[in-house]
Design goal:
Layout: E1 10-14, H1 20-30, E2 34-39, H2 46-54, E3 58-63, H3 69-82, E4 86-91, H4 106-131, E5 137-144, H5 155-175, E6 180-187, H6 194-199, H7 201-204, H8 215-227, E7 236-239
Helix pairs in contact: 1-8, 3-4, 4-5
Length: 246
């Protein structure tokens, strides 16, 4: 496929899955952004690309393991060189796993940290390199309830999400005064996914009452974060269904 560089701003979604990531890609595409969506397997992005293109949007699917430094460096360099100027980056890789502490192997702990924390660092660093010369851009990291408190059985996930939150805080303090808006979301509730439908059917049954978060509604909030005026930026924001306790 031949890629033609254009003047439209670019929104990069790292971890453009079937829920929040895909919804963010579609939302920014509707606003005229050229979207670059990444997953480890580019074939898994084809349905998303068809959705965006059917609405008249422009999107590119790229296979990339966000845990690999060289791959992330090449990804952002290639986008800036061949596609356009990166204006928005959404880091949306999950890593939510449940293991009692005595069953949490070093491999599991390390992999979850690489996915949810280290990959976030690589994404944020390369995004900053692209945005700083223009002193403009938005970087949004997707967090979770585990960003605030570690639940029983979620030591690996919570540790990684705590680290991602700290990264976002440090980047916001460093990059904000240089024109880069860094935000961190706390998604505190079940998202409308096949995983929730299959594993937690009782919880999913509350969807008709607004008890499950619609990924499109998350994406709308991400768009609004990007649109905030410079004199009134949010850093951390939390999203949850009305019936969710917190």
């Amino acid at each position: 496929m031949t890629i033609i560089k254009n003047s439209a701003p670019v929104a990069v979604v790292i971890g453009a899955g079937d829920a929040t990531g895909g919804a963010c890609a579609r939302r920014f595409a509707r606003e005229g952004f050229t979207v670059v969506a990444t997953r480890r397997n580019a074939d898994a992005l084809q349905a998303l690309l068809k959705d965006i293109e059917s609405e008249g949007g422009v999107a590119h699917a790229m296979a990339c393991d966000a845990r690999q430094e060289e791959a992330m460096v090449d990804l952002f360099k290639g986008i800036e060189r061949d596609i356009g100027c990166v204006e928005v980056v959404v880091f949306n890789i999950g890593g939510n796993v449940y293991f009692p502490i005595i069953e949490t192997t070093a491999q599991v702990y390390r992999k979850v940290w690489e996915m949810s924390a280290f990959a976030g660092f690589l994404t944020g660093r390369e995004a900053a390199k692209a945005m700083l010369p223009r002193k403009k851009g938005t970087i949004i990291f997707t967090g979770a309830t585990a960003s605030l408190r570690g639940a029983s059985g979620f030591s690996a996930f919570a540790s990684a999400k705590f680290a991602l939150r700290a990264l976002a805080q440090s980047m916001a303090r460093e990059l904000g005064p240089q024109g880069i808006h860094v935000a961190h979301s706390i998604i505190d509730g079940a998202i409308d996914t096949a995983f929730i439908r299959e594993i937690f059917p009782d919880k999913y049954a509350t969807k008709s009452e607004g008890g499950i978060i619609d990924p499109e509604h998350i994406a709308e909030q991400y768009w609004q974060i990007h649109c905030q005026a410079r004199d009134c930026w949010s850093h951390e924001f939390d999203l949850r269904p009305w019936m969710e306790t917190f």
